[in-house]
Amino acid sequence: MTISWMIAAEPGWRALFAVDGEEVGRSRVIGWGSVAGKDGPELVGIIIDPNDPTRLVSAADVTDPSGGELLRYAFSS
Fold first, then answer.
1. Cα-Cα-Cα-Cα dihedral of 71, 67, 60, 11, to 10°?
2. What distances in angstroms separate CA 14 from CA 25, 40, 65, 73, 75, one per listed residue?
């Protein structure tokens, strides 16, 4: 994944991961980035890879340690 640009996310943004629609984990979104999608640029949440904390990844491209995939983004103050 190549990030074209990235901006910091407000504290409180989370990527929620789910298995069969049931939430199993969450990761803090540290930024929002633009990546190349199949139909043009896509806006994605950037998180620290839960499987390799030395990498930044798109939340949409990772499976969390519980086997969950991105369900949605959420904000809580």
1. 70
2. 10, 24, 16, 6, 6
How far is it, in rounded angstroms, from Cα 52 to Cα 58?
Answer: 13
**For 9, which DSSP code?**
P
Distance CA 77, CA 69 (A): 23
Q: What is the per-residue pLDDT across 29-71, written as a single tens digit (0 to 9) for each? A: 999 999 888 899 999 999 999 889 999 999 999 998 989 999 9
Residue with tokens 């990772």: 62
Backbone φ, ψ for residue 72 (5° rounding): -170, 175
